[in-house]
Structure prediction request, 853 residues.
Amino acid sequence: MTVDSVTIALVGSGGAGAMTAGQMLLDAAANVGWYGLMSRSTGPQIRGGEAAALVRLSPTPVHGPGDRFDIIIAFDWQNVERFAAELPLSDKSVIITDPSQGEVPAVLAASGARQMELPIKELAGRIPGGRVNMVGLGAVAATIGLPRAGIDAVIQKALGKKGDAAVQASNAGIDAGAKEAAGWNLGLELAAPNKNGATRWNISGNEAAGLGALKGGVKFCAAYPITPATEILEWLAPNLAKTGGKLVQAEDELASIAMCLGASFSGVPSITATAGPGLSLMTECIGLGVASETPVVIVDVQRGGPSTGIPTKSEQSDLNIAVYGLHGDAPHLVVGPTSIGDCLFTTQWAVHLAEALQTVAIVLSDQAMGQSRAVIDKPEDAPYTAKRLLATDLGGEGKYLRYANTESGISPVAIPGMPGGEHTADGLEHAENALPSSQASDHQKQLDKRLRKLTSYDYGDAWADIEGEGEIAVVTWGSATGPSREAVRRLEAAGTKVRLVAIRLISPVQPAKLAAALDGVTKVLVVEQTHGAQFHKFLRGHYDLPGAVSVFSRPGPLPIRAREVHETLLSLI
Amino acid sequence: MDTHLSDDAVAPVPGDYKSDVKPIWCPGCGDYSVLAGITRAMANMGLKREDTVVVSGIGCSSRIPAYTSVYGYHTVHGRSLAVASGVKLARPELNVLIFGGDGDGFSIGGNHFLHACRRNVDMTYIVMDNQVYGMTKGQASPTTEADWCESKLTPEGPGVNPIQPVALALACGANFVARGFSNDPNQVARLIVEGVKHPGFSVIHILSPCVTFRPEQRGWKSTVHPYGREPTDDPNEAMRAVLEDDGFGLGIFLAGNRRPFQPESTATRSIAQIEEGFAV
Prediction:
C-alpha cells in the first residue's frame, strides 16, 4: 500500500537545519524521479526563531500544498504555536517528536495525530559531528520509502567539498534516523516515481522570473531589496553579468524604476522586481513609462498587506494597485504567472509585450510562488524576445514624429545613437512630435493611441490557461491556480467535469475570449487570495460572467489548499 | 567623460544644439542665459547630437531638454538623476547631462542627489538655483533663506535654514564641483565643459535669478565674486574652503580623482548554459 502524495513539515528553531534538511529531501526526491514542492515558513527574524520547511512529494506534478501534513518532524518545539495554524493535521497524520524536547504542543496533539518518538538529539550526539537534521532526514526518508541512492547524491553534492568527515557524519546521521524509523510501518510510503525521461528542473518562482527576464532579452536591472522579491534580484546579479547585462543597486524603489526607465529610454530592455510597498513608491514613474511610452517590466512578488503587512507570507492583494494604481488614464499591461514554472514564461512574455507595445508591464507573482521551489518538467522554450519597433525613416531634420498617431498605436521609436531621431520623450502630454501640448485634440489623440495599442494587439492563446470542460467553471489567477487545478482534477476523477480558466493577462481585459472560454457555463466559482475579493470585483467590472457566480476569497497568510476549493465546488454541485 | 565629438566638417555652433521651441520662461529669467551657456558648451565640445542625452525632472529649468536638439527625457519631479544614471550605466558611450532646479534636486530629489554624488557615475548635473519654486508660483525651496516671507505658503518665512548645495555635493562625494552665475553664459559654458570632461559625477551649481518671485536676485550681479582659489583635487581642502565661502564665490571648488562607477560586463555564458544549472 502506497500513497500518491506525501506532505512533510520539518520544524525547528534557527540553527537546527530544518530548511537544509527540507532542501535535501526535495533534491533527493527529484533525483529518484519524484516531483515536489517546497515552501518555507519563516518569521520576520533574520536568524533564529521558528522555521519550517514544508515539502510535498508525488509521482505526478505537484500543483500546490497538500490538504494536511502527513508527517511533521520537529527538532524542537520552540515557538511552534506561532505558525501551528499553517500545519493542519488529522488523526491520520504522524508527529515525529524527540522526547528530550518535551511534549508535543497541545495545539498539534489535539489533532489526534499519531506520535512517534525519536531521540533525535541523542542519536545525533552519538555521532562525531552529527547533526539533528540529518537524523530527521533519515527517519523521513525511511518513512516515505525514499531510496538511499537519491540522498547519497545530494550529500555528495552538498558536502563533498567539506571532506570525507562531513559526508560520513551526515551519512551516519541519516542511517541512525532511518534505522529507528524502519520498523514503524506508518503506511506513508510514496508510490514509485515515474521517470518519464523528460528533463526536470528544480527551480523557485523567483529564479524562474529572473530566467524569464534573461530569455526575454533583459540587459539591465536596477535593484532595491525587499522581501519576498529579493531573490529575483540576487539571481539576476550574477546571471545578467554573465550574459552581457548589468545590475545596479539603487538607493530606493523610486530610483530603481527611474534607472530602468533611463536604461530603457537608451534602448536597453530593463526590469526591476519589488513587492507591494515598493510598487507603491514606483507608481509615479510607472505613469511616466506609460506616458513617455518607455517599456519596462516590474515583477511584484506580492505579500500580505497593506503597509508593511506580512512580508514573509503570500497574498494576491496588490491586484488593485497594479491595475488601478496610476493617476490619470494610464493603460498598461498586468500579467500573472499561474505556477512556479510559469513565472519563467509569463516574465519572458511580459518583456516581449512591454517592448513590442512600448509600455509598462507589471508581473504579479507572489510569495507562495516566488519563494517556493518546485521539481517540474523543464518548461518548453517560448519564442518571445524583446523587439522594439525602431524608426527606420527619420524623415530629415526635425521631421521625426516620436508619438506618431499610427493605426496600431505603436509609434516607431528612435533611440540615442540614431542621427535624426533626436527628440525629448516626455511625461507631459505631448503632440505627435513629442513637444508638450495641453491641447484637447492632442490629449485625446495620445490617450486613444496609448489605449489602442494595447487593446488592438493580438495576445494569442497565452492570455489564459484553459483546461477541462463542463458547466461549472473555476475562474482564478496567479498562485490560486495550483490548488484550483488540483480541486478540479479531483472532481474529474470522481466523475464531475469542471472547467478551469486561469487568467494570465489581467490587463488589458479580454471579454470576447473569456466569454468564449465560459460558453455553456452555468456556474462560476472565482478563487483568489484577498480579503476584499479584489479579483472578483475586477472581473465584475470588466466581464459578463455567466450563470450563478460564487466567490472563494480569503486573505493570507495561510495558503489556499485544494481541499478548500474542492469543498466549495462540491457545495455548488 | 569621453566626449563624442561631432565629425561634421564644419565646426558646430551653439545654434546647432537649439530647438525651435520657445521657452515658457518669464522675460529676464536667468535660465535663458544658462541655456545659452549649455549650447555654447555643447558646440565648444562638438558633442554628437545623437550621442548626447539630456535628462530633467520637473520645474522651470527642467524644461530645457525640449529647447535643445539632442536626445532628451523630461521625466518626473525629483527623479532626473536616477533616470540619467540608468541611461549612462546602460549605455556608457553616451554623453549624459542633467538639468534641474533647487527644489527638484535638493528637496524631492534630495536622496537621489546624495547617492548620485557617492555613486559617481560619469555625467554632469547642471542645477539652476533661484531659491524658489517658480512653476508653482513662488514657494520656499530648500535653498531659501529662513526669513523669506514672500510666500503665501510660509508667510512667516520657512523658518528652517537653507542647505548649501556646494557643501552638500562635497559632503556626499561628488567628484567635480563648481559654481557659476547665469549672467555670464561664457563662464557657465566653460564650467560645463570642464565638468563634462572631468571623469565622474560633476555638479555645476548655477545661481540663476527668478525675476518674478525673487526680483531682489537681480542684485546678485553685484554679490557674486570669483572664488579666488585654484581648483583642488583634495575633497578635504575643498570642503574647508567652501565652509568659508559666502555662497556667491564662482569657480571650481573640486576636481577630484575618484574613479567613476561603471560596471562592465561581457557575455561569457549562454542562457542555455545557465539553464543547465536547474536540471535535476
